Amino acid sequence: MSELLNENFHVEKTPLFDFHNQMNAKLVSFGGYYLPINYTPGIIAEHNHTRSSASIFDVSHMGQIEINGPFVMEAMEKILPISFSKILPGKIKYTQFLNNEGKIIDDLMIHRTHNENSVWLVVNAACKEKDINHLRENLNKNFDINIRDDLSLIALQGPKSELALLKLVPGIVGIEFMSSCWVSYKNYEILISRCGYTGEDGFEISVPNKHVISFTQKLLENSDVKLAGLGARDSLRLEAGLCLYGHDIDLKSSPIEAGLKWSICKDRINSADFIGGDFIKDEFRKGPSRVLIGLLPKGRAPAREGTLIYDSNDNLIGEVTSGGFSPTLSIPISMGYIKSSAIDQKEVYLDVRGKKIPSDKVNLPFVPHNYFKKVN
Amino acid sequence: MTEIFYTKDHEWIKVNGIEGVVGITPYASEQLGDIVFVELPQKGISFEQGKDVAVIESVKAASEIYSPASGEIIETNALLEENPEIINDDPLNAGWLYKIKIMNKEDLKNLMNEEDYNKLIGV
Fold first, then answer.
1. How confident is the model at residue A3 (pLDDT cuts 50, 70, 90)?
2. In terms of DSSP H, where are the helices of chain A?
3. A141 in B contact zone (CB under 8 Å)
4. Which of A31, A60, A300, A359 has its CA 20 to 30 Å from the CA of residue A203?
5. Is A332 in the B-facing interface, judged by CB distances under 8 Å?
6. Within 13 Å, how many C-alpha atoms sit on residue A294's CB side?
7. A41 in contact with B at a CB cutoff of 8 Å?
8. Is A63 touching B (CB cutoff 8 A)?
9. Cβ–Cβ gap B59/A325 under 8 Å
10. Is B88 strand, coil or helix?
């Protein structure tokens, strides 16, 4: 039996580290932080609990960044392919930092706040430094880039999340999906963002570090709410067809290839006046040379990242970027890029340890999203 | 009389005469977490001690199983095909992987007894 080796570089602890240990978490290093891969129930149980009830994930490794200064929205529009004129105050938008070649430096959430001189970003842990450098290079020195490492971040995900959160903060009733607000809890302020990475309704909650354990414990007093680790987070996001940076998207991939065209503002594609804009405009017009698709390998063997994809004539047409077992569907599922020229092939073949496994191509997500829709 | 031996890679082999039954230890099963797929060797094929003979896939990752002794595969656990989670439920008995005809019992001298294995995993 081979075992996975931990990375040897310095690994940080989140403010919930001691709590995870108390809760018998199995800790691994991820994105430079010790985080639970799972707790006692295990990945599948935690996954299923999230789909049916509500789970708390420690995502404090992610970077929370506040950028302040006059005309900050205009400045950010020069960097990102979004239009703040189409984002109401209090709303959140999914977007990507692109390089000059239109390739993805990181993907992130950006909040238009109620203060026109301030935006709020949530970025990937492993990309924090790269993102800050990118911002410093492309923003005027007058802007204050404030890394909010005074705040932890927990995700509460699943259909029973709202009910659980309302018991603590009744004021957030009916908050729309992809919107955020600061609210008071006890004697401190928390930022509640209705978004997530599981395909379910849910929230990401920014809590001051010194209060995050007690806040988490308070949520866990509700028997519908349990802890879940990175393992379940990964299988949930894969079922939801959501890209993971460093795997499905990276500096070699563009948002058009990755099926993230929907996140780019149409008007901005034409004007191409953002970093990487010319490449995106060109690729949008010509179509990408490869596309990200969903794959259902026949049988039970998971086809993991790095698995090569062939057509029926044994031509190499692509590679799996994320793959594993779907607890919801009880079958293996994979995501990967194939050449656009192969898109009409009905069946493709995945090379798993030398065996060519026939696989159906399917649209993403594998499991339908269950996001909150406001009923008027 | 059945004897049990362990490898440093967390496989066990129960030996009765020249027949051995191979599986993974409870420690390994726990480390792997939920097992979702097992790829077992074909009957009639021979493997050398220490060679990768099977693959166990958990939700997290694929792990190779190394043969604790040289020999020929005489049977595999067919139940695992549809219900690989049996390994998690009962790694030492119902969750066995395959049986081999042991070629050379000298191989067993390279393995650990229960006491030494427990020391290795810190029990």
1. very low
2. 17-22, 43-52, 72-79, 128-138, 161-166, 212-220, 230-239, 266-271, 277-286
3. no
4. A31
5. yes
6. 16
7. no
8. no
9. yes
10. helix
% helix, strand, coil for chain A, step of 5 = 25, 35, 40
Other Cβ atoms within 10 Å of A273 Cβ, number: 13
Q: How far is B10 from chain A (nearest CA, A)?
A: 6
Residue contacts between A and B (CB atoms, under 8 Å): 56
Report the distance separating Cα B90 and Cα A346, nearest Å.
41
Is residue A7 predicted with pLDDT exceeding 50?
Answer: no
Residues of B in contact with A353 (CB under 8 A): 39, 55
CA B21 – CA A168 distance, rounded (Å): 55
Displacement of CA A181 from its chain's centroid (Å)? 20
| DSSP category for residue A211 | G
Both tokens of A331, joined, read: 């079958």
Secondary structure class of B121 (helix, strand, coil): coil
Q: Do B60 and A37 touch (CB under 8 A)?
A: yes
Q: How confident is the model at residue A174 (pLDDT cuts 50, 70, 90)?
A: confident
pLDDT value of residue A8: 53
Q: What average pLDDT does this structure show over A316-341?
A: 98
Summarised one tens digit per residue, pLDDT across range B12-27 is 999 999 999 999 999 9
Tell if the pTM clears 0.90, that is, is over it: yes
Please, what is the Cα angle at A128 between A126 and A129, to 5 degrees? 105
Superfamily of domain A1-288 in CATH is Probable tRNA modification gtpase trme; domain 1 (3.30.1360.120)
Domains of chain B (ranges; CATH) run 3-120 (2.40.50.100)
CATH 1.10.10.10 is held by the domain A291-376: no
Domain ranges of chain A: 1-288, 291-376
Q: Is the CB of A231 less than 8 angstroms away from the CB of B10?
A: no
